Amino acid sequence: MVRETTAASKAFDVILIAILGVIALSCIFPLWYTLMVSLSEKSAAAAGIVRAWPIGFNLVSYQQIMRDGQFFHSFWVSIERVILGASLSFIVTVLMAYPLSKETKDLRSRNVLMWILVFTMLFNGGLIPLYQTVKAYGLIDNIWVLVLSGGLPMFNVILVINFFRGLPKELEEAALVDGAGPWYTLFMLFIPLSVPVLATITLFTIVGHWNEFFSGLVFMTKPDHYPLQTYIRQMVIQIDPSQMNTDAESLKRLSEISNQTLNAAKIFIAMLPILVIYPFLQRFFIHGITLGSVKE
Amino acid sequence: MKFKGLAFHYYLMLLPGYIWLVMFSIVPLFGILIAFEDYQPVLGVLHSDWVGLENFRYMFMLNDSKVIFFNTVFIAVMKIIANLIVPVAFALMLHELRLAVFKRWVQTLVYLPHFLSWVILSGIIIDVLSYTGPINNILSSFGVEPTLFMGKPTLFPFLVVGSDVWKEFGFNTIIYLAALTSINPSLYEAAALDGANRWQRLKNVTLPGISPTIFLLLILSLGNVLNAGFDQVFNLYNPLVYSSGDIVDTWVYREGLLKLQYGLATAVGLLKSVVGFILITCSYYLANRFTNYRIF
Question: Which numeric CATH code is attached to A68-291?
């Protein structure tokens, strides 16, 4: 880089740092503000006087969550779903990408199979047919619907195919000549060589499953089965008192809904797992994205 | 070199993936037939009465359909434009920044919102923009009357676009930053020797260096003209802003699943899928033609 020392250039640098600092703060402040509201007194939050620090610091809302059985229920559903979903899609993605990365002479129907894959990635029947299909399978209110209904992560398969194709062919031939079978070659050679790209797609799958709320809302009829994001949505965002009855249970929920500090605490806990894995995620994803997505 | 008997293992590896594909992508495609039926869930897809194109005719008669179509395209096009300009501008600013440590900090903070769900972020955004939230607080200290941002139909589409840009600009920057690092540094040296100042170097070296990437991403984004972002709008909107915020996907959910108009909602969804499919296919074709981009 060429260095410049003129006064104009230095002033430019200062302005640049100021602008970028403000932009970066704008990305983090709303999250910080939520944490501060969750730590503040109810009345201060309701009056809207909380800014960058908590007013009347207390942990009441977090103690309240500790007693909220439904919250933990949903938290557990989300964890279960992330574990099942991420491992299943890892296995299936790798198993699919390996044969499809071969040439047509090794796998004759490769082009047809590839075409089916791309077509289903770009075209789908929409919400109602999916709902009717899932219902016909009898999967409503089943944890597996959360894992399976999003379909195969087709874009990940294509990413891994591209990566596998970039590996040197001689390597695989040498393994096969030495008597290794295709399964051994895949698990002992290809997978270890693809750690960056596999780590990236796995982390994205984990984040995707953790963040998904809609299948929980559509396919689960009992709040007991809601994953965390669906539960949060129902508690925090959907404020529609007209739809509520006046029985005790609904009134209790209504008073909870207006409880800003409790809602803020729920939102904060729901994003905590992402904040915890984010440092690991960040190390991988920039590398992983540039590897697979845009090629010159 | 050709190895015998590998194909069998390849097909075995493909089996789980294609079973998943058939069950959750291809079988639901038959549900498209619902669009041509007076669908009764009790009778099922095969035994409901056929009505031909009646659902489509009804759809074009509805006043709703013009509104939701306009909203969808309006929001999506604004998103495409804003999501192109802001990340490029941000990447250029980061590129000009000379403090490496500060740069890393800024990057870490601006990528973060991408990984949080719209459920979480909507909860936060609704709170921040609420009547007693910090934005109204700041505005009122300048003497502006507090406004209910989330209840103003004229404002809502812009809030949707703005919050989407806020969530994604950091992440979208990654690709431009990768393109920027691949510009040959000697071009800058040569330009500096010729007496070009920072602005001239930006205009004549940096911008031409990343313009192929900008062009490619623009073409690819054209396939999304009908995708205004279901998760986001669904979590942010409320009945007050249906008139300007309702998009095809949210409408299908409300009319189809909540009001049980299966045939009509499937027809609307199908039309969106078909048009979307054509748009995406065209944009991929153009990307391949002009920039040699291939997905596999």
Answer: 1.10.3720.10
pTM, two decimal places: 0.87
For B79, the token pair is: 């998103």
B63-291: which CATH number, 1.20.120.80, 3.40.50.720, 1.10.3720.10, 3.30.930.10?
1.10.3720.10
In B, which residues are within 8 Å of A31 by CB distance?
112, 116, 124
Question: Exposed, middle or buried, B52 (CB in 10 Å: 0-12/13-18/19+)?
Answer: exposed
pLDDT digits 0-9 by tens, B87-107: 999 999 998 888 888 988 899
Which residue type occupies B154? T
Angle among Cα A137, A138, A143 to the nearest 5 degrees reads: 105
CATH 1.10.3720.10 domain span(s) along chain A: 68-291
Q: What is the pLDDT of residues B23-53, one digit of tens each?
A: 999 999 998 988 898 888 788 878 888 888 8
pLDDT recorded at residue B113? 93
A51 contacts on B by Cβ (under 8 Å): 134, 137
Nearest CB neighbour to A127, from listed B99, B188, B253: B253
Residues 124-143 of B with CB under 8 A from A: 124-128, 130-134, 136-137
Question: Which of B117, B168, B200, B204 has the highest number of chain A CBs within 10 A, making it the mutation to test binding with A?
Answer: B117
| Contact between B136 and A157 using a beta-carbon 8 Å cutoff | no
Question: Is B269 within 8 Å of A128 when comparing Cβ atoms?
Answer: yes
